[in-house]
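Entry
Fold in token form

___
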Amino acid sequence: MLTEQAEVVEVTDEGVRVETVRRSACDSCRSQSGCGQKLLAELGQAQRFQILVANPKQFTLKPGDRIELGIEESSFLQASLITYLLPLFGLVLFALLGQGMGLAEPLQIAMGFAGLLIGFIGVRYWDRGERQGCQLQPKIVGKQKAYDFIEVEEA
């Protein structure tokens, strides 16, 4: 399960609104000093996002509580494959169809872009169906325990 830390902002009847900060994998990479990707990742660093999540375990939450969100790896992998491969498949398929029909090269390119657009639309409709099934939505999987403070007597 992929997990992320978040803070509760609001508890409603529909779910729990939480806020999380986007972090980059570059923070833990050894070659961050010589990598151009780190520069791009820093542009989107420290952005805060609020999302509405489900609370299937019925944790008692209030604003300010720290929680752990989770999503299944298989759902994440499936969504990634469909998001990237469906438009690419549409582009190649339609370009090959244009070539098979004997169209001029500019029309083959236009058909390829049409296939790409159809792939993006397909991803959009697939995403709407998955959201209704809530398979791709993160869920609250844990609540940070409050720390017990122990008073230490001074000698």
Summary: The two ends are 47 Å apart (CA to CA). Residues 2-25+41-143 form one domain.
